[in-house]
Prior knowledge:
By secondary structure, this protein is mainly α.
Amino acid sequence: MTDATSDRLAGATDRTRLDRLRAGLKRRHAKEARFKWYGRLAIAAAVLFLAILLVRIVEQGHTAFYTHTVTVPVYMDPARVDRAYPQGSNFEQLAAEQQLARWGVQDHAAGRASAEMRGLFSSELKFVAADLVAKRPDVIGETVPLAAPLSDDADLYLKGEISKSTPEDQRRLTDRQIAWLERMQAEGVVGAHFNTALFTNGDSTQPELAGVLGAVVGSALMLMVTALIAIPLGVGAAVWLEEFAPKNRLTDIIEVNINNLAAVPSIVYGLLGLALFINWMHLPRASPLVGGLVLALMALPTLVIATRSSLKAVPPSIREAALAMGASRTQTVFSHVLPLAMPGVMTGAIISMAHALGETAPLLLIGMVSFVPGVPHAIDQPVGALPSLIYIWENASERAFHERTAAAIIVLLVFMIIMNAAAIILRRRFERRW
Length: 434
């Protein structure tokens, strides 16, 4: 074989290798481009599902943020209003009869028409009237305007949730009640306004009077107990395990059990809280104290794991430099290592607290599924929480509670966003400081 032939064969071989390298490089770049598109599609799908969820919640719950109020003039008949005990007077019946009389509607002997009119008023009307008489007894014998919420069914009709086209026997408002409601709206005695009661009232059996204030305060008290217990214990346990504990069989068993506890279903912690804190320690049932203790047990494993990961991320040179300068082991950990790991510790605290805020199963097992009106003032009083309130309202038979369920979910999300934002601000301050 001549030298020219050999050169041609070598050149052909080099070109073949070059073509293969180019083809391989092209395939690798194509794989990288596909991987990037897979990631973008995954993010787009997650954002889409989140948007659908939020839109659905807002669509169902936005009507709960406004309500309708009726203002009717009522003559405080001295013969029917008890000056000594106004709470015993039937102001709803009084208002219904007088409203029908103004329209010239004749009531039946059985009082059926007044009963239907009374069904358009909320029971809050009698409390408003009784409170007015108790504060100003001189209004007896006078005609005074009384403003109170409409009943839940009347409110739903004005919001478009109840249709007039539905057969009368399939809705809770009669045709006559709808006609009266539209007439009052045309006369201007019915108006819509922001539903302040949703944020200033506790739970109630009347949907138009139910609010989330008691549940918000209960969740805040529980999170306070959870944070005060879980964060010091979790960070302390993580620091000891990572920086001081000897590496032996005992610490290995502890680490394995901490990882296993992080995967235990939350309902198991509810059973533990029921058996330990209520049945054995006899702590008050359905209180923020018991709820906080249960949620603290549930948050501890997550907090320990996150804190240990943050401590491991601190470069060993920091420890070595501190020890070389004569610092003790304790000074090294608490003056150098832990401050540098604090942003990661705050992240773990955010995750664990957010997880605790949204838990429902443990709270149901310790009694927070019961109806608790009013607003708690101490950690040992029976209380509700936002997750359990959402569960109770969603299972209520009254249709008006369903829109309030979505509104409570919105409040819970806002509560969680505010809490996470505060934690993120604190974490950034630590980052800037160190």
